[in-house]
């Protein structure tokens, strides 16, 4: 296990500690603001306009996951419907991302499907798109089945996320490509065991490139979500050498990270989409961002003393 992977595992373990969470919630909101567009939809929509003005597309995420009551899922569903309406009214260039556990997957899969279907249907009315985020492995299969079922019902304006560090990923990509599902391809940000996921960074990178190549070659629109320059440069070179146009894929990066580079990609003519979260349930998202690499934590530590 290399140092970066060790760092990620340690930080994800620490972040699950109740005392660490309590202290972070008390003192960390200002620091988390680096990665969060605001508490309210109005704040998020205003920030989307700013990014659109720089040529950057957005996927908007209303923060929340791991709910304890189905009534919470209903609230999230209603917020996402308002969100879809708000995007249309402001005429901003943004789609949305949501988490299935936020919609009740761990509590009632049927209710979860109904909630997600309502959001996707509203998005279709506005000619917009919904990305169902991928969470940790207990929910992988169910998430894929939700997306495929929606496609079978004619709601094809929905896609999901595939994580390169899982052993099952290549087969999942093949199945989803057959259904022409729009995928966001990522390395993976959850703590997973060696029984289901690659543990070495080099193995994850190799598998990541493999699934990117598969998807680009298929002709299905591809979203490559990465801050890794090795991956970004490789995608640019592969697309150029194989006659794959810039309109066939997009890069995605996180709000608050490498914003200058996001503008640069837009100026180079690439589609670049910023994953922009908003809301008050920021702790789980924030800790995953810090766990991705030591540089993110160092950036936050430096900001503490400004």
TrEMBL record:
Instruction: List, separated by semicolons, the cofactors it needs.
Output: FAD
Q: How is the cofactor bound?
A: Binds 1 FAD per subunit.
What are this entry's molecular-function GO terms?
Answer: nucleotide binding; proline dehydrogenase activity
Tell me if Nucleotide-binding is a UniProt keyword of this record: yes
Q: Pathway involvement? A: Amino-acid degradation; L-proline degradation into L-glutamate; L-glutamate from L-proline: step 1/2
Give all residue intervals belonging to the Proline dehydrogenase domain.
45-296
- Catalyzes what? L-proline + a quinone = (S)-1-pyrroline-5-carboxylate + a quinol + H(+)
Q: Which Pfam families match?
A: Pro_dh
GO process terms (BP): L-proline catabolic process to L-glutamate
Q: Which UniProt keywords apply?
A: FAD, Flavoprotein, Nucleotide-binding, Oxidoreductase, Proline metabolism
Does this entry carry the keyword Flavoprotein? yes
Q: Which residues form a coiled coil?
A: none
- Give the superkingdom in one word: Bacteria
Q: Which residues does the annotation say bind FAD?
A: 134, 163, 187-189, 226-227
Q: State the EC number(s).
A: 1.5.5.2
Which residues does the record give as substrate binding sites?
Answer: 99, 288-289
Q: Please identify the protein, giving its name as recorded.
A: proline dehydrogenase
Which source organism? Paenibacillus dendrobii
């Amino acid at each position: 296990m290399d140092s970066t992977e060790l760092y990620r595992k340690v930080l994800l373990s620490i972040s699950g500690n109740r005392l660490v969470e309590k202290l972070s919630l008390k003192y960390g909101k200002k620091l988390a603001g680096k990665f969060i567009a605001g508490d309210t939809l109005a704040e998020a929509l205003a920030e989307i306009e700013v990014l659109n003005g720089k040529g950057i597309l957005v996927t908007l995420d209303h923060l929340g996951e791991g709910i304890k009551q189905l009534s919470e899922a209903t609230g999230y569903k209603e917020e996402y419907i308002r969100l879809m309406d708000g995007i249309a009214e402001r005429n901003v260039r943004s789609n949305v991302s949501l988490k299935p556990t936020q919609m009740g997957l761990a509590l009632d899969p049927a209710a979860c499907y109904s909630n997600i279907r309502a959001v996707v249907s509203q998005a279709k009315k506005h000619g917009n798109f919904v990305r169902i985020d991928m969470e940790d492995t207990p929910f992988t299969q169910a998430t894929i089945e939700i997306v495929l079922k929606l496609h079978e019902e004619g709601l094809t304006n929905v896609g999901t996320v595939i994580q390169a560090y899982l052993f099952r990923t290549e087969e999942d990509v093949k199945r989803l490509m057959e259904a022409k599902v729009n995928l966001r391809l990522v390395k993976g940000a959850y703590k997973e065991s060696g029984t289901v996921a690659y543990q070495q960074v080099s193995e994850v990178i190799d598998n990541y490139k493999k699934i990117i190549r598969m998807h680009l070659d298929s002709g299905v629109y591809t979203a490559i979500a990465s801050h890794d320059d090795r991956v970004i440069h490789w995608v640019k070179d592969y697309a150029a050498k194989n006659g794959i146009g810039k309109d066939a894929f997009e890069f995605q990066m996180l709000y608050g990270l490498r914003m200058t580079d996001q503008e640069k990609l837009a100026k180079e003519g690439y589609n670049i989409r910023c994953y922009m979260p908003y809301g008050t349930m920021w702790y789980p998202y924030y800790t995953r961002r810090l766990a991705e690499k030591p540089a993110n934590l160092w950036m936050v530590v430096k900001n503490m003393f400004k």
